[in-house]
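Possible regression after last week's pipeline update?

I re-ran a chain I had predicted before the update to compare outputs. Posting the input and the new output here so someone can diff against the archived version. Not blocking, just want to make sure nothing changed silently.
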Amino acid sequence: MGKIAVVLRIMPEDAETDLDEIEDGVRDRINVDDVERDEVAFGLQALMVSTMTTDEEGGTDHIENELEDLEGVQSIEVEKFNKI
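New output (post-update):
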């Protein structure tokens, strides 16, 4: 089946949450192509995580399930989703 390029927006619980720890946890759980930080407001930053998956793996569901219990994460949203 096809490959899927995904960009996830990972929001921390608050501006004091250690984004380096969240990034390390993400890299431990999934294959990451790129990570950028996006200014949200009032010192709050989100992690923008780029990764690849396939239809066979269940699209983005399995990625979100792997990351949903990371400490310090408030929410995970799919920002971009492109079939290749």
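Follow-up from reviewer: compared with the archived run. The mean pLDDT is 93. Marking as no regression found.
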